Amino acid sequence: MMKSEFPDPFEKERLEKGFGEMDDQNDPVVMALRHRDVRKCAHDWKTFQSGAKPGRIVIPSEVNIRDIRQIPFEVDPPLHGDYRALVEQWFKRPLEETYVTELKKIVKTAFDESLEKGLVEVIREFSLVIQSRALTLLLNVPFSEAQTWISWGTHVFRSEETALDADKANILYDYIDQQIETSINSPGKDFYSILLASEVNGKKLTKEEVKGIIILTFAGGRDTVINAISNTIAYFAEHPKSLEKLRKEPTLINFAVEEFIRYFSPLTHMGRVVTKDAHVCEHAVKADTRISLNWASANRDAKVFENPNEVVLDRKINPHVAFGFGTHNCLGATHARQLMKVLIQTLLEKVQRISIVKCKENIETLGELKRKVGFDSLYVNFK
Ligand code: EMZ
After folding, report:
1. Domain spanning 11-137+221-382, CATH architecture
2. At CA 156, angle to CA 151 and CA 160, rounded to 5?
């Protein structure tokens, strides 16, 4: 198997039953696997809620390591819409020219540093660095903050030793508390200050609410973005002809971005809590149990995508759900798409060849099934 190949572990169950089952810390999950059902359940937020106990809709569940609600993703409509309206414009800033210019500088520097080194461990020395530096733009805080975030590693709630690491979560929480205090004392144009000055339904946001929004901004786009970048690098290393194709036809880059995001589906699934006895693909699910919307499986559904297991760089019809679907679709998607676009453009400009030296796969376990989501380490040579 090629290193940049990401098999679909859900095919059999998707075809035969339409759902999968897994346990997660004694709180089982029924996974919706088909594109149609995933969209249907995502749409039905009354039956399948996000506003459950904080951390419970995340798989693996984070109920044991946090009690702060992440906003807006752990809030249901109509309040969800109010929070969303508050931050929506802020998360569209990546479309602005000045933002893109800064993003380009960040990505160019990362390539220059890598080309100079030659041998690079992509996850930590390249993708994490780009992700963290790019996040300074999204939050509108000094570039130097990225250094601190890089030191936290690829996931804010997971460490090498343990999948759910409360101590690690506390590092992030303490940091955010401090930043909030700084912004209260001397407000600026950073995201903290903007939020602290905002109102929802006529009431100023509390520190707790601000914290909930900021935590999501840190956690939601971290390992997902890192995987998207790293997997793309692995793909181009093994498909030099694709590089040529995009060099000749740069108008295809936007399609390629969507296709990589579909194919890699950096976030496998997101849970919901069932509010009343219901069905997922004709399978009965009881109130107060969990289901998940399996984006990764939906994105390989042959009923929707021709040749779903191939990367078709110029795929024109691509209704993937890698950024979720419906009310809760990813707020960071504009930033992520822009970053992927700049990544590919800069790669085409600066890099002739990438070769993989060695790598270790990052495998997620979902009950009986295993899914490759990226790499724990990926050593490449940039030329
Ligand atoms: C949560 C989640 C959000 C969760 C869109 O995804 O991302 C996960 O990586 C975090 O662990 O807390 O933010």
Report:
1. Orthogonal Bundle (1.10)
2. 75
